[in-house]
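From the pipeline queue, job 12 of 40. The input is one protein chain; the requested action is below.

Action: predict structure.
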Amino acid sequence: MLANRGDEAAMERWGPTIDYLDAGFPEKDVVLVPMDFGQMTSEVANEQIDFLITNPLVYVELEVDHNVQRIATLKESWGGRSYTVFGSVIFTKNDRIDVNSLNDVESLSVMAVNEHSFGGWWMAAREFNDAGLDIDAMDVTYGGTEDKVVEAVLSGEVDVGIVSTGILESMKKEGKISFVDIKCLNVDHSPGLHEGDNFDSSFLQKHSTRLYPQWAFSRSSHVSEDVAEKMLANLLQLPRFSEATIKGGYAGWTVPLDYGPVHDSMKELKLGPYENYGEVALSDVINQYWYVFLLMGITIVTLGGASQAINTKNHNLQVEIYQRDRAEKEKQERDKQLELIISNFPNGIVVLHDSDLRYISIGGKMIDRFKFDKNDFVGKLPENVLPADMVETLRPHLYAALDGETRNFEFTIEGYRVEETLLPLEKSNGDLVIVGVIYNITERKHIEEALNNAKIAAEQANRSKSEFLANMSHELRTPLNSVIGFSDILLEEVRGDLNDPQKKYVSNIAKSGKHLLNLINDILDLSKVEAGKMELECEAFSLTEASKEVMELVMPLGNKKSLSLSVEHNYSEEICADKGKFKQILYNLLSNAIKFTPEEGEVCLLSHVENDVLHVSVSDTGVGISEKAQDTLFDAFTQEDTSSSRNYEGTGLGLSLVKKFVNMHGGDVWVTSKKGEGSTFTFTIPLSQVSCEGNPEETREGEYVIDSNPQAPENTDIDPFPLLEKPLNSSNNEPIVMVIEDDYSSRNLLVSTVVNAGYRVLPLSRGYLESRYVDVVKPFAILLDIMMPGMNGWDVWGSSSGSPSSILVVDDDPSAVEMLKSSLDIEGYNVIPAYGGQEAIDKDKAFSYSPDLIILDLMMPVTSGFDVMAALRGNSNTADIPIIIHTARDMENKGVFEGNVVSILQKGAFTRTHLIEIIKHLDSRRNHGGSASND
């Protein structure tokens, strides 16, 4: 690949093309090697290159000298059209009224791209030559790139510039130039000026020259026809809009054009292989008059034979003297060049002899900084010229270098921090020298130190941020907890009825409080993700069930606007993900779609799996999103309409959290939308990337028998004792589990599962039967269905409960204590308030009352919730009291709590009903002395 603009630019433009071609040659590796003209000529001659991409000038020269053959011609893309030809533009500044034709350029300064550029110089040179200008006498300089040429002309650095066609148009499109400032020369192509030449009026780009074939894709002479044909087929099949053509800025390739016009141009300008074109060569004269030269040669040989012997010895002696003088001069010249190189080397160089490690030479800019004199070192040992501590550091590395090792080490000298690399090198005569290269790393060390200090500061800032988030979470959620809690109590009207305006006002308070709490949660969640404090809690769950739960939440929102909400899943297996975050992703996308969809519109949730990746899409027929807004749509606090009079409320956090949560799962999220037509948000989750560890094993299948003669206790007034179902080979000593389930199939499944686990089972179909048998059987555990006709699960447990539970409520916020006390008083619980952790301990409320349950805040002054738990664990009477944590703090690691912490409730984020359910569940466990679970 001819790299006129440098290797990096060539790799960027042609890399995707080479990747495409490589894919078409599975049996070979197609590799891009950027080269300049000299390298390319040498590598072609040595058959080290198979295929070439070059400009027409270089191609023709290689074609003549090395039999390179073109197989395709480039199609450039511009203005929606493709061109297989190009030319040059000769231009000046528009205000140069003295420059209007090619003849006006003769005495002016001209800048071309480079001396090998066909479009950036030689095309224009041909036009100058045809116009009668002596191009060898012209004042021509080279800018290296087209951009620099244009800048030089517009800045007045030069009078005239030459670039390839399309360059000016591209720079105008990029906003770098305006055609108002530029005047192009020779664009009218007057009739008769170039008779028969290939000027093309259909070529829309500005051009001042004839048009020539575009760059050539060619093959070296050693490449077989089969390989060349396969390469051509791949080139011609390259899609018009592919990564290769888009990155390369071209339209594709076509069959090779006739490069005769390029040959004509080179002949006229006497370039490359046509340097002597038109001149009479000596070989031509010899071929025509060979017999004359033969006769003259015979005569000369005959006459010269006699003197040959005399002159031979004298000639040999002169040659030997000349060769010796030449070798000595060459050695002296090499020594001077080496000294010049060493003295100007930006770092430092030292050379030591292997026999005794004496210095042979030192030099370089780094040595000059140390203010060392070369004469003080040459011929000396290191210990003669260096400090003792430095010699002690240096010696082991020198010995290792003598053994053939390359060594790197650091030391400090004259206030500089330096690094030295020792390299053992063998000279042509077999002697070994040690070359040391010294680098100044003082600045690098300062940067490393600054980076380390910045890292420490960043870690400290991150810790401060985490502390700030924890404190803000507590300070903001605590008052909201009271606002939401008291609002809910009032709305339940357990303390008295509310009139309609009061209901409306309290409902607005509750709604606003929950909205603010959700906003706080979103901000804290986003901050935790960005701080790396949030982790996934993955589990296997049903996609259908999860989406159903979310749709139930958003359905009321859609019904208010008469929207059509639909779900279509093409995947029925369980997925492994963080279920809470997955549902929040769905909720954010669906609620957004509903918010921005007008009445009677449609919102659809779709999913499918492709290549082991789950794709979920939410589509709507809403207002759509502009292309500009789509670029920043997933940034935090970003909305398309940010005006004070916008139609849709929101903070711009929902989609940002969606992106964060999806990325945490290893997926991606994007949007396709058109203003006024609706949007589709799609996210992916790799099904194989997230691990679900710790999933319960599948229920074991087995057999069980029915005991037709159970040993029921005597003297009981209960109905005939139901059959106990027990494992095979039962010893009748296994613990009994009571199963209460009204559904026959579900009851049988539970019975089978528990029996296979090694227990005896007492199956019941109605909750009211439980009280008849529980005191008699004294089951190890009870499994019951919460939702049963007549008497639900909680009623079953409550029917045999004793006296109301006593509950100790500990919180430094009086409003929080009062809110919880009001909620619990309604249910008949005996509430013991403690306004702070110190009061709970000092006044012995926890120890004297021995409550059945403690509801405990964590973030309290003087004595925190953690201190209270420690005190409780230290007393045998209180160590096992169950505790419900009631806190505004974000609990990132819930594993810090001991087993008697049965639940963690975040302030403001739970309902009174949920709290009562937890307490009733604990009551049932306390009253029955066993464990309970519900389905």
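Job complete. Residues 190-200, 642-646, 694-722, 930-935 have pLDDT under 50 and may be disordered.
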